[in-house]
Amino acid sequence: MLEATVKKILQSRVYEAAWETPMSPAPFLSRRFDNQILIKREDLQPVYSFKIRGAYNKMAQLSEEQKAKGVIAASAGNHAQGLAMAAKLMGVKAVIVMPRITPDIKVAAVRARGAKVILKGDAFAEASEHAQQLIKEHGYTYIPPFDDIDVVAGQGTVAMEILRQHSGPLDAIFVPVGGGGLIAGVAAYVKYLRPDIKVIGVEAEDSACLKAAMEAGERVVLDQVGVFAEGVAVAQIGEIPFSIMRDLIDGVITVTTDEICAAVKDIFEDTRAVSETSGALSLAGLKKYVQQTGVKGQTLVCINSGANTNFDRLQHIAERTELGEQREAILAVTIAEKPGSFKKFCRTLGKRMVTEFSYRYADTDDAHIFVGIQVKPGGEDRQAVLTKLREADYDVEDLTDNELAKLHIRHLAGGRPCEEFTEELYRFEFPERPGALMNFLTRLPHNWNISLFHYRNHGAAYGRVLVGMQVPNGDRVHVEDYLDTIGYRYWKESDNPAYRLFMA
Which residues are catalytic? Predict the structure, then answer.
């Protein structure tokens, strides 16, 4: 299979549509991590992602009869744009079925390249089901985003370019993983020609379908998939990619949202490119690999797979960057409710920069403050801050890794009811489309009272929402039964320490 895949890669017809992208040196990162770090710039493709390679190569294999009937795909992102451009270049009708939650910028980009866009459903599964129905009705040819040998071969040309562009020593290539098409193609080509080079997959920790498959020894379906890095938000690794790569890759690294955001900033500082979150995934994994292994003097390549990001996501990315670089600690600290307490607290911190401070009067004895403190990367300095504050008799809760605190509490800290009452607190992901809120409210029992509601748009397909509900005693045990019928992802946060300290 390996030799057959490499042969297909060598025969791929990607350059009728795709460009050979450069490898940009990353001088700041290289100096910081004591390794030569290079970034493969797939963000410079005509559709701003590597997906044009696989889509065009697959279409190039179609018969004239298949082309005459037209092609179709279900996609919310880069595959849709790649297929739309490939079809336009070949003069073939293209239909793209996209979920209604797809950001307008991506819908507009697909239409601008001549494809017909059909918006269907609130999730990829519904869009995919509708695409299959249209195939039955019209005879369209389905162009898969990753689970196809010709698509894998097209993506594998990225590796062909890397080895041609850098003929010297090369220790590892870090590849972002969604459905597995890119890493399968890269691993096949690299391991056939240069088996000494490590190929390492990088996944978002909340959509790590390859890691789960490697651990199980077979493909598995994730129960839930995070959508922050939407370009790799896949519940199951592709069958064909997994069969190719499972014995070829040298490992899988998972990274957090904060680590991805930090990598977006790193790429910008070294190349002035604004990467999408899934595009920066590989660099986040590279950094984690260096930190975990301590390697020095090596040559490491990461693939920036795309730059299709919404401008209004940048605020959220910038906000999380300091946490991703471990340069900020988020703490909840209890101080005495009396004049001079804040000054005393800052004196205890010494010359450290306070990056954020939120407080509201609660009672005559204690004040709970929400504070951000600048620290050095690595975790040891954060621990030193915690130790110093506790030695000074402060009650401290470390919220640096607390999603509720970072998404919501930092914007609501200090708000609490003026009288005691019981509420249930849940964190949701709402689809970003008209009617999503009304759908939520109408499905709740009429005698439940909304006691808290916080929403913040991050320019993604899903909005993050925090909801407090006063629920009659008889309904307490059935809360999640009601929520399950709504169909939105949720997390119970009633016992979260950030909530108890600042809002309960």
Answer: 51, 305
Same domain, 41 and 169: yes
Domain shared by 20 and 55, yes or no:
no
Q: Hey, what are 418's tokens?
A: 């003026």
Residue that is last in its domain, among 294, 322, 350: 322
Are 218 and 342 contained in the same domain?
Answer: no
Q: Does 308 lie in the same domain as 183?
A: yes
pLDDT given for residue 300 in this prediction: 98
SS (H, E, C) 443-469: HCCCCCEEEEEEEECCCCCEEEEEEEE
Same-domain status, 294 and 352: no
Which residues does 364 contact at the CB level (< 8 Å), separation at least 6?
A: 337
DSSP labels for 190-231?
HHHH-TTSEEEEEEEGGG-HHHHHHHHTS----S----TTGG
User: What is the CATH number for 87?
Assistant: 3.40.50.1100
pLDDT band (50, 70, 90) for residue 370: confident
Q: Are residues 123 and 76 in the same domain?
A: yes
CATH of residue 395: 3.30.70.260
The pLDDT score that the predictor gives to residue 146 is: 93
The per-residue DSSP string of 226-266 comes to --TTGGG--SS--HHHHHHHTTT--EEEEE-HHHHHHHHHH
Q: Does the pTM of the predicted model rise above 0.70? A: yes
Q: Tell me the C-alpha distance between 187 and 463, whole Å.
A: 36
Residues 278 and 348 in one domain: no
Task: For residue 339, list its beta bridge partners.
Answer: none
Say how far residue 145 (Cα) sits from the centre of its chain.
18
pLDDT digits (tens, 9 = 90+) for 220-230: 999 888 878 88
Comparing 379 with 41, the larger pLDDT belongs to 41
